[in-house]
Amino acid sequence: MKDYQIRWHIHADSGKLADAATRSILEQSEQAIRDRGAFLIVLAGGSTPAAIYRLLSQAPCEWNKWHIYFGDERCVPRGAKDRNDSMARNLWLDHVGIPPEQIYPIPAELGARAGADSYAETLAGVGDFDLTLLGMGEDGHTASLFPGDPTGAGPQAPDVLAVMNAPKPPPERISLSANRLNRSKSVKVLITGAGKREAVAGLRRGDDIPIRAIAPAAGLDLLLDEAAAATDPGEPG
Ligand code: 6PG
Fold first, then answer.
1. pLDDT in tens, 35-85
2. 237 within some domain
3. Is residue 128 part of a domain?
4. Confidence bin at 230 (pLDDT 50/70/90)
5. CATH number where 67 lies
6. Which atom of ligand 1 is nearest to the CA of 135?
């Protein structure tokens, strides 16, 4: 396991976590736009980010400087309600002024292998992300990097992986590799609900679960509510 810092941010409930995460994302976007004229963000799938995406849809922002990427996608048709990009579009992206050409969906409708090859071409000319948002499953998976499968953590790993047997439906998915996800100036993992407690405990113990492959140089920010953290706010992770 690579040595890296994990910063634990424990919030009383998921609403307070969403408020804090949204404020931090907006601050990071403003800094990136000041420094480099653009903000490159990777969006998380699953349901946890929904409250954050709703809050972002109401935020005044230099949306024309944002560039939207996705950490993973399910291999279902474009526009399907269970696509990760559908959730982000419905709650947020369709309601703000990000130029459509600056939203880079994963073409998972092509199937895992063809879609992964295509997205790798999209990412070929892209440098480090400014911020990567991730969720974590009850088994410690993140993006579509599942236990027992390669996480693509090595320095030579491809940017994008085809996933053919995911235990979380649908079985066919496309995921950024841990190596590519780690090429981010900041990584926030969003974890809420008592269902995640065992995976959080495993993370604390140093269990070899996929989330452990997410080890960005700048350290990892874990944002948890009390229910998931099973500790009181303010206690160390
Ligand atoms: C997906 C996600 C996945 C998700 C976790 C947590 O495609 O399902 O990318 O990695 O982030 O499973 O999901 P919840 O936020 O719904 O708990």
1. 999 999 999 999 999 999 999 999 999 999 999 999 999 999 999 999 999
2. no
3. yes
4. confident
5. 3.40.50.1360
6. 11
> Given the CA of residue 141, which atom of ligand 1 is nearest to it?
10
| Mean pLDDT, rounded, for 23-46 | 98
Q: What are phi and psi for residue 192, nearest 5 degrees?
A: -130, 155
* Pocket of ligand 1, beta carbon within 6 A: 44-48, 72, 74, 84, 135-137, 141-144, 168
Q: Range with the lowest mean pLDDT among 67-76, 143-152, 227-236? A: 227-236
Rounded-to-integer distance, Cα 194 and Cα 198, Å: 8
pTM for this predicted structure: 0.96
Residue 177, judged by CB atoms within 10 A of its CB (0-12, 13-18, 19+), counts as buried
Instruction: Report CA(47)–ligand 1 centroid distance (Å).
Output: 6
Per-residue confidence (pLDDT) for residue 211, from 0 to 100: 98
| Helix residue spans in the chain (DSSP H) | 14-36, 50-56, 84-91, 112-124, 178-181, 197-205, 226-229
Report the separation in Å between the CA atom of 167 and the middle of ligand 1, taken as the mean of its atom positions.
12
In ligand 1, the atom with minimum distance to the C-alpha of 49 is 15
How far does the centroid of ligand 1 lie from the alpha carbon of residue 37, in Å?
30
**92 alpha carbon – ligand 1 mean position (Å):** 18
CB-facing half-sphere around the CA of 65: CA atoms within 13 A: 17
Whole domain around residue 109: which residue ranges? 3-228
Within a domain: 27: yes
**How far is ligand 1, taken at its centre, from the CA of residue 35, in Å?**
31
| Residue 12 counted as domain residue | yes
Number of domains in the chain: 1
